[in-house]
Design brief:
The complex is a heterodimer of chains A (182) and B (301). Chain A has 9 helices and no strands. Chain A has 182 residues and is mainly α. In chain A, helix 4 crosses helix 7. Chain A starts with a helix and ends with a helix. With 301 residues, chain B is of the alpha+beta class. Chain B has 6 helices and 15 strands. Classes of the chains: A mainly alpha (182), B alpha+beta (301).
């Protein structure tokens, strides 16, 4: 991240902030979309996070920490959206027979459906840890920094979340009694 | 049945799929609002003294004097440590890990925040009470018996205190959380169990120690990186009253490629386990001595 850009934006330079926001907006939307599992909520959270960044930038003491700080505001915005609008309706998708299979063997629509259902059952705190670590590739200590919690807490949440995802995948993969009897 | 590696791979692959988000609309909306959205400046800079009335100004000065006096009194030699006073009313802070099951309402941990060198901090775990001190700056308490040292540096260490009554044993296979082995009745047995864990390297073999006149055994192990499970799946201990292995039973996640040092100290109430998890392999040479100084500072009541 360009620290000079951050410093200029801290001083109220709208052009610098526009450049900064353009650099992070796509990633913010993708991250919030994954945490919230809803594109409308994700757009609202991203918008709120970017505005919060603009408003609070003068209070950021160390511009070099902009990235972790900005992700913290994004996660907070996601929590706020999640609390404000509780419409976690299941995302029903039509199964198609010809869905291409990815090289790693995953990627059937059934797998995605299982993953989405398992993920929606997690709390926002657990989802955030999974997304920050497994999507943004942040090391656990940086995830802890973003979330403002101890590394052990991040580790616990990730462990719980991944075990829950594993359980969801295994449960859905388990044949029903009728299938087993056939 | 999926393995942990399978699930991680599948989840990462799923999260990494292109979901065709386009942030342009959001970005334009935000930029349109900048003119009407003022930045929040530092609160101290915004509140200038000239706009205060005299009463408020005198009140603030008086409050500052009182605060400085209280701090000065607390810093005098022999005075009670700030934040170190036992208090049964303090609010539990979020725990770095599941709280050991021997925690009671009477347990006392240093309050969440910075630990000052030279200050003695009170700890009560069940019936056991002791004090300890840190030798250098850079240590913080999470308020629940976990101290983080030098966070964000190669010396990052997590140090914890637990009483043996809350930790009945270890998993012989910490990756799979299987094979519960109960600690036996001696500190030497505890240390031997740690040194015998499959796959770990023994850094310091079990050795007799004395801490504040109490005997015990220390041991240090290195957890290799290639144990076959992820960082978040390596859990050493299982909790009390956990006949079945569940998420709730696993305790104290440990880092792969980290060095774990243990001091099992025999006390009347059982055994005190001090765990210091040194996160990175390239920690400074002084760190081991610093951790040892913390252990040596323990004084039982």
């Amino acid at each position: 991240m360009d620290t000079n850009l951050v410093i200029r934006a801290q001083g109220g330079d709208q052009e610098a902030f526009a450049d900064l926001a353009a650099m992070i907006a796509d990633r913010f939307l993708a991250t919030s979309h994954r945490i919230l599992s809803d594109i409308d909520l994700a757009e609202d959270a991203t918008q709120q996070a970017l505005l919060s960044i603009w408003q609070d930038l003068p209070q950021l003491r160390d511009p070099a920490r902009f990235e972790a700080w900005s992700y913290r505001l994004l996660v907070r915005a996601c929590y706020a959206e999640g609390r404000r609008t509780r419409r976690w309706a299941p995302n029903i998708r039509l199964l198609t027979v010809d869905e291409p299979m990815a090289a790693d063997g995953f990627s059937s629509v059934v797998d995605r459906d299982q993953l989405e259902r398992g993920f929606r059952r997690l709390s926002l705190k657990h989802r955030s840890v999974v997304v920050l670590h497994h999507y943004l590739d942040l090391p656990l200590d940086e995830v802890a920094d973003v979330l403002g919690v101890p590394v052990g807490t991040v580790s616990s949440r990730l462990h719980y979340a991944m075990r829950a995802m594993r359980t969801a995948l295994d449960a859905d993969a388990r044949p029903t009694s009728r299938e087993a009897a056939q | 049945m999926s393995t942990n590696r399978d699930v991680t791979r599948i989840v990462r692959s799923w999260l990494g799929e292109d979901r065709h988000e386009d942030a342009d609309r959001v970005l334009n909306t935000v930029l349109d609002q900048l003119d009407t959205t003022p930045q929040r400046r530092s609160s101290w800079a915004a509140r200038r003294f000239p706009i205060m009335n005299n009463v408020l100004r005198v009140g603030l000065v008086a409050a500052a004097v009182v605060i400085i006096a209280v701090i000065a009194i607390n810093l005098l030699p022999g005075s009670p440590a700030p934040g170190g006073e036992p208090s049964v009313t303090q609010t539990p802070q979020p725990s770095a890990t599941p709280a050991p099951s021997d925690a009671t309402a009477h347990d006392v941990s240093p309050r969440a925040g910075t630990l000052e060198p030279g200050t003695r901090y009170d700890v009560t775990r069940g019936p056991l009470s002791f004090t300890f001190a840190v030798p250098t700056l850079g240590w913080q308490s999470d308020g629940r018996f976990w101290m983080q040292g030098h966070s964000g540096s190669p010396d990052h260490t997590e140090l914890s205190f637990a009483l043996s009554t809350g930790i009945p044993g270890i998993y012989t296979d910490p990756c799979a959380h299987e094979g519960q082995e109960l600690f036996d009745a001696t500190s030497a047995g505890d240390a031997e169990a740690m040194a015998s864990l499959a796959g770990v390297d023994v850094v310091s073999a079990p050795a007799d120690i004395t801490v504040d006149g109490r005997s015990g055994t220390s041991v240090a192990i290195h957890v290799p990186e290639d144990l076959g499970c992820g960082n978040t799946d390596y859990w050493l201990f299982h909790g009390a009253d956990c006949p079945k292995v569940t998420v709730e039973c696993t305790m104290y996640p440990s880092w792969l490629d980290s060095t774990l040092r243990y001091w099992f100290i025999d006390v009347d109430e059982g055994r005190l386990m001090v765990q210091a998890a040194q996160r990175y392999p390239d920690a400074s040479a002084d760190l081991e001595q610093e951790i040892q100084q913390i252990v040596d500072s323990i004084q039982f009541e």
